[in-house]
Specification:
- The chain is an all-alpha fold and about 190 residues long.
- It has two domains: about 110 residues, Rna Polymerase Sigma Factor, Chain: A; about 80 residues, Arc Repressor Mutant, subunit A (Orthogonal Bundle), CATH 1.10.10.10.
- It has seven helices and no strands.
- Helix 1 packs across helix 3, helix 2 crosses helix 3 and helix 6 packs across helix 7.
- The radius of gyration is 21 Å and the shape is elongated.
């Protein structure tokens, strides 16, 4: 798997610009590979994922003055930027497909309102669920997402209902934390 490369966007001079450049390089070294894996999982396209990672660091460079470590960690800030960059990439890809369809078919392509957001929400939820333990993930998926009764799921898993309730509680708590770490706002 090839790692995306950070390209220079602007010519810099002065001590402050050099510190910013060093900071961006350090952020890339610390988080670039993880952001790339996130983008590949979301887009299922290595080339598009490389473009997204490059875009994340370009946006970070341009908006470095908006980063506030008191509000969120650098990792969370970069993942929030990545989430938006992935959404933008999905929209661009979808727009190209629609334009190609219109050109070839001679008719306007139908679009589903909110499709991009629904796809991104599904991807983000899937990624956050992967970060849970299998016991917590199973409890949350079966009871909270699929709406099955606690008694039914507890009997299926061979655990007391109280244990299942505890797994759902702590699973939802861990899910919120995972989504927060990914930069997803409630």
């Amino acid at each position: 798997m090839s790692r995306p490369r950070l390209r220079a966007v602007r010519a810099h001079s002065g001590e402050q610009d050099l510190r910013l450049e060093d900071g961006i390089r350090a952020a890339y070294d610390a988080h670039g590979a993880e952001l790339y894996r996130f983008a590949v999982r979301q887009l299922r396209d290595e080339g598009a994922a490389q473009d997204v990672v490059q875009e994340v660091f370009v946006r970070a460079w341009r908006n470095a003055d908006t980063f506030d470590p008191a509000v969120a960690s650098l990792r969370v800030w970069l993942f929030a930027i990545a989430r938006h960059a992935v959404i933008d990439q999905v929209r661009r890809t979808r727009a190209r497909v629609t334009l190609v369809s219109e050109d070839h078919l001679g008719q306007a392509g139908e679009s589903t309102p909110g499709f991009d957001e629904a796809v991104m929400t599904g991807w983000l939820l899937e990624e956050a669920l992967r970060r849970l333990t299998p016991e917590h993930r199973g409890a949350v998926v079966h009871t909270y997402l699929r709406g099955r009764s606690y008694a039914e799921v507890a009997a299926e898993q061979g655990v007391p209902v109280g244990t299942l309730r505890s797994r759902v509680f702590y699973g939802l708590k861990a899910l919120r934390l995972a989504l927060d770490e990914m930069g997803v706002e409630p």
